[in-house]
Specification:
Low-confidence stretches: 1-60, 62-68, 142-149
CATH superfamily of the largest domain: Metallo-dependent phosphatases
Number of helices: 13
Number of strands: 31
CATH class of the largest domain: Alpha Beta
Distance between the termini: 98 Å
């Protein structure tokens, strides 16, 4: 009996010393360290091209070490994230309870997914509040009135996919009946355009050019200064129990966002030059400086040569023969110009000496140019730039204007003459190399907001060849825009810096101007933001007031056929 008592005590002691089971679930996994960004030395590029910076983007991920058998993916998980989870090779589980792993919405999850409030592109509302969105979700009137005296979301259902609705239900609760319209994946955009006005919430990765992205509480995911912490349209997801399978931790990396701002006519002459001499060389750019400097690539189409022998500006110049003193270059560098277009009609106004001096001045200031050059070969070279992993190419030309303005030849400097067969072949080749191609024109000028038929045909031809953006740099008066194929075409942006200001006090159509901010992300073109300005004091654009912007956009959307 004593032997059996000793055997029992030994067995009890052995069991007591075994590992105590974890009653509180798996131990949280420490965050995976971010891998360092890897950069390579710039590749050599031809003369007249910009610096090429190649960057290998990094993607944070939840990394794993052990395989699992089954996974349950919540209906709230966006399709892009769900696809990555399905690619792990795990067997789908029929429900959450039976799954070894679960991917689902969780307030403190390690995966952050950003969403955007969008509307069909010809929408004039720019910003709404989170309170307005939540009011619409709850079946209310959409919140307080906006600056136009309307309640943007009032009485209009929010369109979204079933997954997006499930995701926001996890943080906002169940929507009121009729406040949300569920659309199948791939049908949201066309449905919204047919039902304007319309509003939708989509994951960031589903943004495309025909959507307008609205800011929410003053924050937009397509802005460079986006504040992730302050932005309300985001959902957290988690893969549990803690594991280390390869899943992205976000759908928006700031380092992958690239912006290009295109502008219209710059001519630092006549009354613009007089004003600069009186009020300072930097005066014209004071209101646009921040926007242009923030852009990854800021474009200026300077039509005028810089020339050391340039006479004093004549406010009444009748011969339309122009030049600018070299010291005016300070304005272009101060506003953050990254590329200069040389397709303008007046580049050759003071002859070869002034053109060579201009090109040397651009090189001295590290300002790459395109659309013009020392000879025909130089003028035709595409300008190749890499930013944040995006490969962007600029091409430009001067449309033959009845021989009035000389262009470059094999032995003469000047603007590149338009050769549409040559440009089409060049565009096709650049697209094959992975470049997003931007084509800008100095086309025949007209005082009309509507382009004429040959202009439409030539711009569309560049789209047919593969250009993603086609923009008119010639228009002193803004012209209409359209989506054609997969391209955005803006037939004319208007002036940037020029003296075409009405002296009567009434606003001239030539005082209104667009700055187009184009947004690229991770190898894709997301679309354009239309920035609107009014030219004042014969030199200086200022941001339009809300009322001015509303009237301007309504007019141009109407004439654009929207």
């Amino acid at each position: 009996m004593k032997f059996f008592r000793l055997l029992f005590l030994a067995a009890f002691f052995f069991v007591s010393c075994a590992r105590t089971p974890n009653l509180f679930g798996p131990t949280p996994r420490p965050p995976t360290p971010r891998p360092p960004t890897v950069t390579r030395e710039p590749s050599p590029v031809p003369r007249a091209t910009a610096r090429v910076v190649e960057e290998t983007p990094t993607v944070d991920s939840v990394t794993a070490t052990a395989p699992a058998e089954t996974i349950w993916i919540s209906p709230a998980v966006p399709s892009a994230l769900a696809a990555r989870a399905q690619a792990l090779g795990l067997t789908p589980a029929p429900d959450s309870a039976s799954a070894a792993y679960r991917l689902e919405a969780y307030p403190a999850g390690e995966i952050r997914w950003f969403y955007a409030l969008v509307a069909p592109f010809p929408t004039v509302t720019d910003n709404v509040s989170l309170a307005e969105i939540q009011s619409a979700w709850q079946g209310g009137r959409g919140g307080p009135l906006d600056s136009t005296g309307a309640t943007p979301l009032a009485g209009i259902p929010l369109r979204m996919s079933a997954a997006t609705a499930q995701a926001f239900q996890s943080i906002w609760g169940e929507p009121a009946p009729g406040s949300v319209m569920i659309e199948a994946d791939g049908e949201l955009l066309d449905s919204a355009w047919r039902s304007r006005p319309a509003w939708a919430i989509i994951p960031f990765e589903e943004i495309q050019p025909k959507w307008k992205v609205l800011s929410v509480d003053g924050q937009s995911p397509i802005w460079k200064d986006f504040d992730e912490a302050a932005y309300p349209l985001k959902i957290s997801f988690t893969l549990s129990p803690a594991s280390a399978f390869d899943l992205p931790v976000t759908n928006r990396e700031s380092s992958r966002l690239t912006t290009v701002v295109l502008t219209g006519v710059t001519a630092l002459v006549r009354l613009t030059a007089v004003t600069m001499n009186v009020k300072g060389i930097l005066y014209p750019g004071e209101e646009v400086r921040a926007v242009l400097r923030e852009a990854d690539i800021a474009h200026v189409s300077n039509e005028i040569p810089f020339y050391g022998g340039c006479p004093n500006p004549d406010p009444q110049e009748r011969k339309l023969i122009f030049c600018s003193p070299p010291r005016y270059m300070e304005l272009l560098t101060d506003i953050g110009t990254d590329v200069v277009e040389l397709t303008g009609n007046h580049f050759a106004d003071y002859g070869e000496k002034a053109m060579f001096e201009t090109l040397e001045l651009y090189r001295a200031n590290n300002l790459p140019y395109y659309g013009g050059g020392e000879d025909l070969l130089d003028a035709r070279k595409p300008l190749l730039i890499e930013r944040n992993g995006m490969k962007i190419a600029f091409l430009g030309c001067n449309y033959p204007d009845r021989g009035r303005f000389p262009t470059a030849s094999e032995s003469r400097p000047g603007a590149a003459p338009c050769d549409f067969d040559f440009m089409s072949a060049n565009i096709t080749d650049l697209r094959a190399q992975g470049y997003m191609v931007i084509v800008t024109f100095q086309y025949t000028e007209s005082d009309s907001m509507v382009p004429f038929e040959p202009q439409v045909g030539d711009f569309r031809r560049m789209s047919d060849a593969g250009a993603i953006i086609i923009s008119g740099s010639q228009a002193h008066m803004p012209q209409t825009m359209e989506f054609y194929n997969d391209s955005f075409i803006h037939y004319g942006l208007g002036n940037l810096f020029f003296d075409q200001v009405s002296g009567s006090g009434a606003v001239s159509p030539k005082q209104r101007e667009f700055l187009d901010r184009h947004v690229f992300y991770d190898g894709r073109y997301l679309g354009v933001e239309l920035l609107t300005y009014l030219l004042e004091d014969y030199s200086r654009p200022r941001a339009m007031t809300p009322g001015e912007r509303l009237k301007f956009l309504l007019e141009y959307f109407k004439w654009s056929g929207w």
